[in-house]
Design goal:
Blueprint lengths: L2 E7 L6 H14 L4 E7 L6 H12 L4 E7 L6 H11 L4 E4 L11 H9 L5 E5 L7 H19 L11 E4 H5 L11 H7 L5 E5 L15 H19 L4 H31 L11 H28 L14
Parallel strand pairs: 1-2, 1-4, 2-3, 5-7
Antiparallel strand pairs: 4-6, 5-6
Helix pairs in contact: 5-8, 9-10
The structure holds uridine-5'-diphosphate (UDP) and magnesium ion.
Magnesium ion binds next to loops.
């Protein structure tokens, strides 16, 4: 099978028939064999009914329609995770269900993966049809930060329209809300040939956007998490130990200052400041306790990892 199209959706019933019809038309024109996997993320509207209809009406050997229905709403990452698990095509395309992404991009994305040898190609909504203040401008800031942190030069990391080689999606694990950072997940897994294609973007025709402004707060926090996991996930002591040592060291200097001040005053016969009122005393206590706690956190994190079933999971590219 050439292509798997994965469509995560939450309450998008009105868009689905048109979306499917459009995908099918593009596939037919280009003679692709394909499957469309609709992942219904706990919709409360008629989405699942529409998907069942599409499945029973259109599914055949060359054009497979599949549906996965969650019992409740888990989020876009969860939907993509299950879609990736189910996918079978050589090239996997993800696409939003709201008709904002154009299926006309599929042939070129397919070509970039197959012929140009990209592991992953991300769409870039260069001209974007969303609200300027709640989406476009925050998104520019967000992408600038993401570029700095991840080192991947993409303009639109969170674009819903992306293409992957099959083994990329089988070897990364999208979790919590990490769908925003799939290129980074791929890079961390060793799939470094990441490309970008300018894609058409369209206005939402039906329904409403499922993500509010809180996505930027969560997005930044997730970026920190994923950066930390990548850098120290396998050796947390390298982080906690370093910061802990630094704190402990500052505390130790403060102790020396406290003792030094006392001795100096005594040896010169002047009135010595009480240790308990010396500001350095408080700094010393605080820093040394914090230092110890960070060390403890580091040891605990190491213990947790020791017990993780994936502590020795490595992606092997080839063996001879
Ligand atoms: N989506 C989903 N689960 C959710 C939220 C969204 O599967 O909990 C889907 C949604 O139906 C759409 C895609 O993710 O197909 C992108 O969502 P949306 O269009 O609301 O995002 P925007 O384009 O506004 O950034
Ligand atoms: Mg949308």
């Amino acid at each position: 099978m050439d292509i798997s199209v994965i469509v995560p959706l939450y309450n998008e019933a009105e868009s689905l028939p048109k979306l499917y019809e459009w995908i099918a038309r593009v596939m037919k024109e280009n003679h692709f064999s394909y499957e469309v996997i609709f992942v219904n993320d706990g919709s409360t509207d008629d989405s699942w009914k529409v998907i069942s209809n599409l499945q029973s009406t259109f599914s055949n050997d060359d054009a497979v329609v599949r549906g996965i229905c969650f019992r409740r709403n888990y989020g876009k990452s969860a939907a993509l995770y299950c879609g990736f698990k189910a996918a079978q095509g050589d090239v996997v395309i993800t696409m939003d269900a709201d008709l904002q992404d154009s299926p006309d991009e599929i042939p070129e994305l397919y070509r970039m993966i197959k012929e140009d040898g990209f592991d992953l190609v991300s769409g870039w909504k260069q001209k974007r049809y969303d609200n300027k203040f709640t989406k476009n401008i925050p998104s520019k800031l967000f992408n600038a930060t993401a570029r700095k942190v991840t080192g991947i030069k993409l303009h639109d990391m969170n674009c819903g329209l992306k293409a992957y080689r099959l083994d990329v999606v089988k070897n990364i694990e999208v979790f919590s809300e990490m769908h925003r950072y799939i290129p980074y997940l791929a890079k961390n897994a060793g799939f470094t040939k990441i490309g970008e294609k300018v894609v058409q973007h369209r206005k939402r025709e039906f329904g409403t956007s499922k993500f509010g402004l809180n996505r930027f707060v969560n997005g930044y926090l997730d970026l920190m998490t994923i950066w930390f996991l990548n850098k120290f996930g396998k050796q947390p002591m390298h982080f906690f130990g370093l910061v802990g040592t630094l704190m402990f060291f500052i505390g130790f200097i403060a102790v020396l200052v406290v003792g030094g001040m006392k001795l100096y005053a005594l040896s010169h016969g002047t009135q010595a400041m009480l240790v308990g009122v010396n500001p350095y005393f408080h700094i010393a206590i605080l820093m040394m306790i914090l230092g110890c706690m960070l060390f403890l956190a580091g040891f605990l994190a190491e213990l947790v990892i020791r017990n993780s079933p994936s502590r020795n999971d490595y992606l092997i590219k080839e063996e001879i």
